[in-house]
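Handout for the seminar on molecular recognition.
Each group receives one record of this type.
Step one: identify the two inputs.
Step two: read the structure output and locate the region that could contact nickel (II) ion.
Step three: write two sentences on what you found, then compare them with the reference statements printed after the record.
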Amino acid sequence: MSFLQSWSEPIVRVQSLSKSDIQKIPNCFVKPPSNIPFNIMDTKITTSVNLPLIDLENLNSSNEFVRKETIDVIFNACREWGFFQVANHGVSHELMEKTRTNWYEFFQLSLEEKQKFANSPATYEGYGSRIGTEIGAKLDWCDYFFLHYLPEELRDENKWPRIPISCRNLISEYGQELVKLSKRLTTILSIGLGLNEDYIHQSFGGNNETSACLRVNFYPKCPQPELTHGLSPHSDPGGITLLLPDPDIPGLQIRHGNNWLTVNPIPNAFIVNIGDQVQVLSNAIYKSVEHRVIVNSKKERLSLAFFYNPGGDKLIKPANQLVTKDCPALYSPMTFNEYRSFIRTKGLTGKYQIESLKSPK
Ligand code: OGA
Ligand code: NI
């Protein structure tokens, strides 16, 4: 699979547009009316949701009932919501805050400094402003920085920001902690499905092949938030996502039935969600739920999405134990690289891809 080496249209930095004091957003950001989101800062109230919050310390309880109950709550959240939040997760709150502040400072640097890390659709690594390469596509109101953390062959610190000076160290430390937490979560998710506790870890390629990347999303203020999205509706293509949301500004919305619910961020918690590959492995017991981000005219917003994924060459398919006569395999095997190439070309398309891959009955 080969990708374009450069963008097919000139790249517009959303942050620069936002700073230019325009009153109207360019047409390429205006979504079709059927997709128009609510504006959270408006008086029109959108429904907000408190996602199930799990105290991970409960898994260390000496009381077996407490441990089992915790695993059950996570299992049910993955089935019904595809999302949950974790507290007492072992990652230092100071590290979380420092890492967020660091990235905020990066986005405040001059355009010239950020441009040194401008990305291309060949790997998406670096400073970017669009996902997908189709000419004339509708764009999202978001700039981002994307980098690889695992596997080690793909980790290239020279592609990480040099300023702020603590940036590279913080990314390394944050990455290390989030890999630890992700691995722990895949264990719990495997146990919930009745599989060996390292089933998901091994399917992702174990310690050597599992991949992990970080996307830092920066959503500038938007003069017409009701016409666009910060991120279009999508499900995450990979394994699991650990999101450190902006603690002050809501923006993430998840689909629940026909409604979009705004997630209330909880200080110092991570929002965890199931990606498409875990939906496939679990034969759709766990749901990779569609979500999107809305923007506002008052405040910029920053979030860190850590994606914990199968190695690119791993063939992902429903676990044999979860395939029965009554529950046939819903998906054919596919490598994660093949799967991801679709999004990297077409951009975010809701749940279209994983739905279209369901095996014919
Ligand atoms: C993502 C994502 C949500 C957010 O990066 O895939 O869904 O709140 N981000 O930024
Ligand atoms: Ni997402």
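Reference statements: DSSP finds ten helices and 15 strands in the chain. The radius of gyration is 20 Å.
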